[in-house]
Amino acid sequence: MPDIKHFDPDRALERAERLFWRHGAATTSIQAVTAETGLNRSSLYATFGGKRELHLAALRRYVRLRSAPVCAALAADPRGLPAVREFFAGLVDARCEGEYARWGCMLVNAYAGEEAADPEVRAVLDGHHRSLRDAFRAVLETARDQGQLAPGVVPGDGAEVLVLLAYGVNVRSRAGAGAGELHRTVAAALAGLASGSR
């Protein structure tokens, strides 16, 4: 007879995701996970495996539900640089206000944690990096085609700069930087991309 789960695995994974996102994998104990999800260890292990597997599942969930849709929307945006400005305005606001304020990005947090040494974790992080870089490159190519980029700005190189800027916003906001400071920093960085006529 098949085992019948008396809980919602995705709801439990969402709770674990929030815990890992806020506190990091290394400092989150399995006791904290069971307390947050309301599951006992045997149910947790039977469904997800150990803490490492649960963290990987949480990272993948974060990418699927939070990161990938944003990257897809950015890549498809036909406005060019206004889309980049809107992306960063939204990022700063999300990182400094509301439910997830000061949590940073779960993926950027993982880069700085011990878990980044795990090859499977690293593969998730590298995949996210490529997706974000490719989204920025696509929108910068649109900006170039519309005459919005300053002379000498190469979309591929500019995309890498924008990824690093996004990482910096996440790290600085987690460390307590205010929204005003971050908006000014982003504006200064983006000013170097724009042509003088825009």
UniProtKB/TrEMBL annotation:
Q: Where is the HTH tetR-type domain?
A: 6-66
Q: Which residues bind DNA?
A: 29-48
Q: Which InterPro entries match?
A: Homeodomain-like_sf, HTH_TetR, Tet_transcr_reg_TetR-rel_C_sf, TetR_C
So which domain of life are we looking at? Bacteria
* Keyword check for Transcription: yes
Q: Which Gene3D superfamilies match?
A: Homeodomain-like, Tetracycline Repressor, domain 2
Keyword list (alphabetical) reads:
DNA-binding, Transcription, Transcription regulation
One GO MF term attached to the UniProt entry: DNA binding
Keyword check for DNA-binding, yes or no: yes
Please give the name of this protein. Answer: TetR family transcriptional regulator
**What is the originating organism of this protein?**
Streptomyces silvensis
